Amino acid sequence: MLSVDNLVVRYGAVSAVRDLSLKVGRGELVALLGPNGAGKSSTINALTGLVTPASGRIVLDGQDISRVRTEDRIRAGLTSTPEGRHIFANLTVGENLRLGAAIRRDPKGVRQDIERFLALFPVLSERYGQAAGTLSGGEQQMLAIARSLMSRPKLLLLDEPSLGLAPKIVVQIFDFIGELKAEGLTLLVVEQNARQALRFADRVYVVSAGTLRHSGPPSSLADEHGLFNLYIGG
Amino acid sequence: MDYALQQLLNALAFGAEYSLVALGLAVVFSIMGLVNFAHGEIIGVSAYSVFLAAALGLTSPIVAVLLAVAAAALAAVAFERVAFRPVRYAPTTTGLLTAFGVSIVVQNLFMLLISPKPQSVSILNGLNQMWFFGPFAVSSLQVMELIVSGLTILALVLFLNRSTLGLAIRAASRDFATVRLMGIKANRVIATAFAISGALAGIAAVFIIARRGSVSPDLGFSLVLKAFVACVIGGFGSLAGAAAGGMLLGFIEVGLLVALPQEYGGFKDALTYVIIVALLVYRPEGLLGQRVELGDKEI
Question: What GO biological process terms does the UniProt entry carry, in alphabetical order (chain A) (predicted)?
């Protein structure tokens, strides 16, 4: 589904991502773990095209999208729920969901999808006409993920879905992520909260200081306990 | 009574015109952070298009009105494509200086290609008549200005609340990167914002030509300064603020004209700005502006 080769992201003289390669297979949930500042978000932003990599190749479904603009990558079936959620606070919950479906041309299907998410998250239904900025952090995260799904992506990138949320809410969010995987969606999840991310992960990549340190099944992290503690912690 | 009504209409008509032009500035500023000082030249292009069409034999006022609006929208989109797009990601001062550059170049083109002197345009004079409602005589132009501005603002509100592109413009005013993550083309959102901004300027241009009966190279400049002030009063970037600020400015100006004795009439502008400064001391972010929270990490 997604194949990244030798990705390099630089901000001026600072290298945020150095020679990173990873693969996500169809239907897989892959976790990208690492401490703060490891280059995880830079990787995601390079994948969506919001930052331009210095070098490297990104291939989605056999199509080289390294030089493709963000808007066209979304149209090619990739989308991301950014770190910090970035819901449109001045728009209503309903308008957020509608914008998520901006690339679709099937109004009927869009309405059905909106109804589906409202049934799934009753709180979004209650607040449908309210400004999304009035939602709590957890509700905003649910809205942000639902908004991403409105474009019917093939591959969803989730950047720190647990950020700033209460532990109970984090568990709910990851339950939902697990359901998405069960439905057949391909996911790349970036997290600092390793325990939650590992619940449904098929494979794990660990990065620190912009470099890939480890890759393998989740069990491999448990084997190498030192690695788990060193890069991820508790 | 007649006098009071006349002055009220004056204030509303001036306010409506400021609101239209201020909205044009605000819609571009809100999504791009660009203070488009070349907005006055969009009004200029619109006015000179009508002048040229009339000189070439156009006689229909309706066609002239449509031409004015279309030319302004096209000019705004062209300014964006040629001048502002290359500096889109540059610091905001670069955009501001670019806008001044565009303004100077276009004004000089009017002078070189047409004339530095005002040129008479009479095609829209028919809009400016006296209407009699019982005992009251009112200017048809002012009534139309009020009604058309109201309808235009209503149409803009509907567009921004109902259409996907309108939603995208509102969303982009806070978070452009995430709008692109929805698969919405940045160029399209920005071009639409400029086209709206231009169309609003074109509507204002129609009323200016009808009132003055002439066009000159600096036609839009002082109006844009006023509109800029209206935006500041309302809160820069807030669309509702720009409309409200424009209306308030109209009322302040006309109110001062009425209140000041004739021999002090020259103080009108100075006093207007004193009132605005006082207002800004009380509310530095403008009437409807919001302090931007700096919280989440930028993406």
Answer: L-amino acid transport
